[in-house]
Amino acid sequence: MNGGTARLGAARGRLGAPGVRAASGATAACWRRAPRPTAAAAARSARARVVSFKSDPDAAPPAAAVAVAAAPLAPRPAAPNLLPTAGGVVAPRDAGVQLACSEPTYGLRLTYSRAGRPLAGCDRIIARIGHSGWSNTADVELTPSPADPDLFEGAHGIPASQLANPAHAEVQVVFRGVGAGGRECWDNNGGHDWQLSVELAQEGLVLPAERAGPMRALVSSLLLRLDALAAAGLLTAEQFASLRNQAWAQDFALVRAYQTVRDVADDSAVASLLLSRFNFLRRPGLHVVHVASEMVPVAKVGGLGDVVTGLAKAHQQSGILSEVILPKYDCIAYAAIQELRPLRSIEVAFDGRRVATRVWSGVVEGLPVTFLEPSNGMFWRRQFYGAPDDLERFMFFARAALEWLLASGKQPDVLHLHDWQSAAVAPLLAEEFRGRGLTQPRCVFTIHNIAFQGWMTPPLLSKVGLDPDRMARPDAMLDDSRPGFAPGSHDCSLLRGAIAFSDRVTTVSPTYAREVFLPEFGMGAQAILSRHRHKFSGILNGIDNDNWCPEADPFLPAHFSAADRAGKEDCKRLLLEELGLPYTTPNWVLQRQSGGQHQQLQLQQLQQHADQGNGNGNGNGAAARPGRPLLAVVSRLTEQKGLPLIEHGIKTALARGAQVVVLGAASEPDVQRRWEDMARDHGSGPDARIVLRYDEGLAHRIYAAADAILVPSFFEPCGLTQLIALRYGTIPIVNRTGGLADTVRDVADGGVPENARNGFVLNGREEARVQVAVDRAMDAFLDANEWWRGELVARAMAQDWSWSRSAADYLSLYRGAL
């Protein structure tokens, strides 16, 4: 965070009590143990523990800071003669004595100093407070301090009953300011929000709960070790279930005990220690298992893997037990898996045989992951997709996932399925596995791209144990509405089965959720979606701010933030050097469109600074002309992505004197050859580079270096490209469709607030439309460069596209499905 220190404190006491405060200094702590409580009420009157965190551990604490403190309050005395109410107050009626106990509340005290921060010119400061991934939000107007005109203070209470786990609180805060003329602006800590995490220990103390990766990884490691202990027969089913409840509730004593034996190989010793911390009183939280074919960083083809990891991590941070089940491909990134170990083998019925399947566990991005490896080599193909038997492979995977859940004794609340690859879970659960004892889970199915449906002939369903006669019906998997329909043809789809048998169905943006009911976008699924419209909704994807962070991205040669953007220009210079493109800008000719006619505009060469920098001053105090704009394309090269518009947009940008960098790969040989021809035509001179492969590190560097990014998709369910670009201050040029329409608003759109205008939008599939949009972006960069580099880039980077809000929407959806 720039301009101040975010101090997050945890304390116990009454709201407004003098002891509830935020301490200054990096990770400073002071606390006193409370007297041993004699009752639950006494336990809630313990003394304070105060902890402070800073974004820069080496920086000295500033004079003014943002501070947030949390304190579970002692139960407050009720008014005389108060009877029991829904709010949790209990008072026995007696003529002489009245006793009352209200529910515990986490009290927040907030302090915001506007000096040197984005809200410096605002007269009113409002704190927007949420918890558990931005659920139950509230706005609290802060009061100016009489002692300091720049200091604003306030308080808010969060009832423990609102928390999934009352012993663990995750609080998020951002600040809104109102200035002259009602103009609003926001301070969201550079896109990170202010986060406060505390847990209630058995001794009645409130302690800091470590939210960083190591703590998440520790809990995930514990959960997987419990799986191994149960598989070895060292835990009874009751012990296993209760210890898992304690683990995902982050029970203080249990987690800390496991930390001491994490590397101990003797399972009996580990089981003995964990059972000594056995606690029946921990209430279980929500348990969600994602069944998916992708998960970054171990298995990624498109955006599906980003969504699985990002959503599961966001929910994990809010106290939900999030697990992932994934095929054990032979081509996964094994280096990204910690503590990979075999658990046991199970048998999975498939195509009249029983296939021995080895179950593995590991920790990925702090999440517990189960990997399924069939002995018949179904996932030993050196590729994730593209095999001729993909349908059989992923139907087997769906059945194996359910067999493992049944064998392990787990009863998750929600099975979250992703695209057709895990869609068979829903009909299999309904038709077979509920009857075999897997009674608890409800199914949520997310359509990431409705163009991929898993089409098949009905007889193929029998391989996985589904009755073709029952499934080949319009109310199940059969689509008899398509042109050319004939019984026995490829008119059953796994996607239709998941829609029919799931409890909730989502797609990845609100606009796409409307578009899929149209023939142009629905790909034949409009009828079954209409039949299940009551359980269908669109929830916008987010991005993982930990993985996409320009302030700390390990792939970048320089770092930057919304407040200090100098590193972005360094990234541009170094990327151009990496790709062999010139960074200096001698005289060059721009093609400027005026009145429908192109005219030559010769720019006079400026006196350059000694380093001939792109866009630098001339050394004599004169303002420098902007350097050449850098337009990027980072995309799969498929028809969906608007290939004709991408090609025309590139040619338009090059004609305007811009430089262009393309990173992508095509799955179709004809498309790949066409782009190889383009690379030969445009990618060898000083103007463009076309890299026809996927390179994760290079993608990060392109996002950081580019001035603008072109995303003219014909349809786009959500799209992560534009969200990542905004995070890195790269301005998107997009088509108005799907999630692009939900996230990018044109800089000239007077119908939205100014702080929401973040890009350039075209509407349609004609080449002329992308040409106009690219021309507008080039004009803005060249003629209003100070506004572009200052206000527009800062605005884009300040917008919050993290998973926090979307995760809260999914949490509400899960609860609605139960």
Question: For this entry, what is the oligomeric state of its chains?
Answer: single chain
The CATH architecture name of the largest domain reads: 3-Layer(aba) Sandwich
Radius of gyration of CA atoms, rounded to a whole number: 29 Å
**What distance separates the N and C termini?**
39 Å
Strand order of the largest sheet: 16-17-18-15-14-19-20-23-24
The average pLDDT is 81
The top level CATH class name of the largest domain = Alpha Beta
- Percent of residues in β-strands: 15-25%
Approximately how much helix is present in the residues?
A: 25-40%
InterPro entries: Glyco_trans_1, GS/SS, Starch_synth_cat_dom
Catalytic activity: [(1->4)-alpha-D-glucosyl](n) + ADP-alpha-D-glucose = [(1->4)-alpha-D-glucosyl](n+1) + ADP + H(+)
Pfam family, one: Glyco_transf_5
Domain Glycosyl transferase family: 626-750
